[in-house]
């Protein structure tokens, strides 16, 4: 019964996706994110207009190093190989730390999640790591158990992650069941017709064996329409199969942990710096390669795509596996980038829990002191990050923040009683029932004035059409915590083996902004990180119309764009460069 009901749920989601999302049933220019709304009809950031009209008679003053902290970069890609940062102080392949920075043969960057034994491809979600840490300690805790203040906080966190773990596991398990069924039917129909990918006509002519298969056929038809073609839908299903397989085998599996074996660092020492290897490509370089191409894919060749910035060097720093990044690695990645000359750091990753925020805060402060701009993707869960935790972030765990948090904890309502998880997860802990409330969530404005980094810019994702569907339906948002939006929907960029693909995400929007920051700095290297941030935010194209939004209560609404981000608009290279010129003249 559960399986059958799930198909109806999946079908409903697929057939109603178009209500609040722009259609993928469209052929976009490969570089639409660089185009101009008025001249070209696509809500890009006017990069090409800027090059043609503002920069045609100007020469860049400096090549800017942009560090891409991610999951790996294909250093052999035809459109990336010539724009990679190269450590000229290091002799490649001699096994010696020639420049004495503690990293042997770091020619194009460093990999903090590997060793001589290999590379860490997968890891848990942070909430699973927290769960694994606390479950031996609090599994048997009951209402009458006496706990000290520290234990009470730990137990509160334990119950929170256990709740979310159970929810995520169940959702992933159910979704994977649907994906398996879709994948199976498509493969079966393809085999009948001796094809790799079946046509929609093949799907229609297939005689379903039961009601479940009939529902799968409907999902395939609906999904193919939304994706633009059955070929695109087929690829999305194959990708989803891999994603959810990894999620269940590794991300949500408390028994999986190969950190000690494949990285070999002292994980308990958060300030340990010298570990890893020089393989910045790693086992899966799709995400990091795509990000890198958006920033600076070679504009001087006649192949592939054009990145936003022309005079840029991409430094590869691998800290993100398929799973959640670890705070220790993020901190070391930031420090490595700063110490090796990066002016901009792109961080297209994030998570809902922290392990050691202090060490990340220290690295962010280090970058702030050294004048390095940090560009961070807001996330892809359509969450209001004014209300939901999202890490890393610009807020420091300062004494003021700690004091304020303690004050709020005293005023917080009592926790909801524990109830058992479902039978599949029964032996892994307890969950809380979700409280139902009709009250609209209210952002805590006081905490937004607590100490935070001045060199941080948070980026949401926009789509190509200037209408009510401009906000990418998946993008996180926040009136106070998301600074700007940038193109992040159907973005064509570089992927391994010198190929190109369209991907969606705030992970794609952040490098648009990183590329813009590098473009500004290449012509005005004297500008500070806070100034570049200010220029980017002040020069946005304001969004006048209301846009579609599924809010915190799950309601389909319309919102003014200034309620979705601080600047109320989409970044614009043309206007940013004009404003940067005026800043430079004041110097």
UniProtKB/TrEMBL annotation:
The keyword Hydrolase applies. InterPro entries: Peptidase_S8/S53_dom, Peptidase_S8/S53_dom_sf, Peptidase_S8_His-AS, Peptidase_S8_Ser-AS, Peptidase_S8_subtilisin-like, Peptidase_S8_subtilisin-rel, Protease_P7-like_dom. Coiled coil: none annotated. Residues 1-21 form the signal peptide. Keywords: Hydrolase, Protease, Serine protease, Signal. It comes from the Bacteria. GO terms for molecular function: serine-type endopeptidase activity. The keyword Iron-sulfur does not apply. PROSITE patterns: SUBTILASE, SUBTILASE_HIS, SUBTILASE_SER. SUPFAM superfamilies: Subtilisin-like (SSF52743). GO terms for biological process: proteolysis. This is Subtilase family protein.
């Amino acid at each position: 019964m559960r399986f059958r009901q799930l198909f109806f749920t999946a079908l409903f989601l697929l057939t109603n996706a178009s209500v609040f999302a722009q259609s993928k049933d469209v052929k976009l220019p490969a570089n639409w994110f660089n185009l101009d709304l008025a001249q070209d009809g696509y809500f890009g950031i006017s990069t090409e207009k800027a090059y043609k009209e503002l920069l045609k008679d100007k020469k860049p003053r400096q090549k800017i190093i942009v560090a891409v902290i991610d999951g790996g970069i294909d250093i052999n890609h035809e459109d990336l190989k010539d724009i990679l940062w190269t450590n000229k102080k290091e002799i490649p392949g001699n096994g010696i730390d020639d420049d004495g920075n503690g990293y042997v043969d770091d020619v194009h960057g460093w990999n903090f999640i590997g060793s001589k034994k290999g590379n860490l491809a997968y890891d848990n979600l942070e909430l699973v790591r927290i769960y694994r840490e606390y479950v031996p300690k609090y599994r048997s805790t009951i209402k009458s158990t006496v706990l000290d203040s520290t234990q009470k906080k730990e137990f509160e966190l334990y119950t929170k992650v256990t709740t979310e773990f159970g929810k995520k596991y169940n959702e992933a398990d159910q979704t994977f069941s649907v994906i398996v069924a879709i994948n199976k039917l498509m493969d079966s129909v393809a085999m009948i017709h001796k094809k790799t990918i079946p046509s929609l006509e093949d799907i229609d002519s297939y005689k379903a064996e039961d009601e479940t298969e009939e529902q799968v056929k409907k999902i395939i038809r609906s999904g193919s329409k939304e994706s633009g073609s059955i070929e695109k839908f087929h690829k999305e299903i194959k990708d989803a199969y891999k994603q959810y397989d990894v999620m269940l085998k590794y991300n949500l599996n408390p028994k999986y942990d190969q950190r000690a074996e494949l990285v070999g660092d002292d994980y308990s020492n958060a300030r340990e710096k010298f570990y890893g290897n020089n393989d910045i490509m790693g086992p899966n370089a799709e995400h990091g390669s795509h990000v890198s191409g958006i920033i600076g894919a070679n504009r001087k060749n006649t192949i592939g795509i054009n990145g936003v910035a022309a005079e840029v060097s991409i430094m590869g720093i691998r800290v993100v596996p398929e799973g959640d990044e670890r705070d220790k690695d993020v901190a070391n990645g930031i420090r490595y980038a700063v110490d090796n000359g990066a002016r901009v750091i792109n961080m297209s990753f994030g998570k809902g829990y922290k392990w050691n925020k202090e060490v990340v805060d220290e690295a962010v402060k280090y970058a702030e002191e050294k004048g390095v701009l940090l560009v961070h993707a807001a996330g892809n869960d359509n969450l209001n990050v004014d209300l939901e935790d999202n890490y890393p972030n610009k807020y420091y765990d300062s004494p003021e923040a700690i004091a304020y948090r303690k004050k709020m904890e005293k005023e917080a309502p009592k926790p909801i009683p524990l109830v058992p998880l479902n039978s599949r997860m029964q032996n892994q802990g307890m969950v809380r029932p979700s409280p139902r409330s009709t009250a609209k969530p209210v952002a805590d404005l006081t905490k937004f004035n607590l100490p935070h980094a001045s060199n941080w810019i948070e980026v949401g994702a926009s789509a190509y059409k200037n209408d009510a569907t401009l906000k990418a339906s998946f993008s996180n948002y926040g009136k106070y915590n998301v600074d700007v939006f940038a193109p992040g929907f159907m973005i064509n960029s570089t992927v391994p083996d010198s190929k190109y693909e369209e991907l969606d995400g705030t992970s794609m929007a952040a490098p648009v902004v990183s590329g813009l920051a590098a473009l500004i700095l290449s012509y005005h290297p004297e500008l500070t990180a806070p100034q570049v941030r200010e220029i980017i935010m002040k020069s946005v194209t304001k969004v006048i119309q209301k846009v579609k939004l599924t809010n915190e209560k799950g309601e389909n609404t319309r919102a003014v764009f200034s309620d979705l981000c601080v600047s109320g608009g989409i970044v614009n290279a043309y206007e940013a460069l004009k404003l940067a010129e005026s800043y430079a003249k004041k110097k």
